[in-house]
Design goal:
homodimer; 166 residues; 7 helices; elongated; DNA-binding
Amino acid sequence: MRDLAAELGLKGSSLYAHVDSKEDLLVEVIEAGAAAFQESADRAVRIEGTALDRLRALVAGHVGVVLADLDEARTFLNEARALDDDRRKAVIAVRDRYEATFRTVLEEGVEEGTLRADLDVPITATFILSILNAVDRWYRPDGRLDPDRLVDAIVGFCTDGIGRAP
Amino acid sequence: MRDLAAELGLKGSSLYAHVDSKEDLLVEVIEAGAAAFQESADRAVRIEGTALDRLRALVAGHVGVVLADLDEARTFLNEARALDDDRRKAVIAVRDRYEATFRTVLEEGVEEGTLRADLDVPITATFILSILNAVDRWYRPDGRLDPDRLVDAIVGFCTDGIGRAP
DNA sequence: CCTACCGATCGGTAGG
DNA sequence: CCTACCGATCGGTAGG
């Protein structure tokens, strides 16, 4: 709290005029992150077209949210464990709903035939989200890969795989 | 330190008869984890056969190390940031070497023709490692997926993708 | 929003 | 390996 206050040019104790507790402040940041991810997913599923189009929009949206505010995204993705039981469960519920959006789109893809018929939807969603949730750990916006190419790379990897096409 | 001592039936201060500092203890655990991952990778690359066989061995080895000691693996994967500069850089160097093993195997796969000729090797390695490094976050050994099936699912996802085969 | 402060916790030491 | 303790840090409060 003293570090945060210093960045605002304040003393640590002055923060308590604006926030009731350290955990309340953390909750505010986490909820802002949760809202950003959920709004992105809600926009993606409204896209008409194939499930693959919506999957691409989910991936692009996730990358966009991460790059729009790295600190906020990281806080949402990694710091919920510092919350007390009730509030942590609420955050996990939001994340579950976000992940369910991916599963729904994958199921639509199987039904419409743009995705493999033998897909294990829950585990596939986990793999795709594993790739997305790691982006903040390694991606450098000033590197050789601009965000659009990153999205292409993720979607291409997931849809086509790395094996030589038979 | 007091919590750790309590699990051993000791007082906090007694630990300092066995270890010089809290960070030394962390380093010991991280180095044990690093050694486990590296030995797994060294075994995998010695496998004769196709690069795909070695990639499968890398994936199976990684999953095996994670499941053999979840706490040790998590400490290696996530807690290096708590180390001071020099020691953190040493851990990052070990992880870089581990990841380089994946890139080497992928390159061999491209050269021998079992993997797509247009593969972006560094980013592909990052995606595969993203999936592997997230396993400890969601996998339950008592769930519906035994470790062999998990390895199959990861390798299948990476090689074949989720798109309908054309 | 600041000064002054409190109680708890924590890594670690001295001395046995 | 324990008792007794220290100095630093931290979340937070009182009172202005």
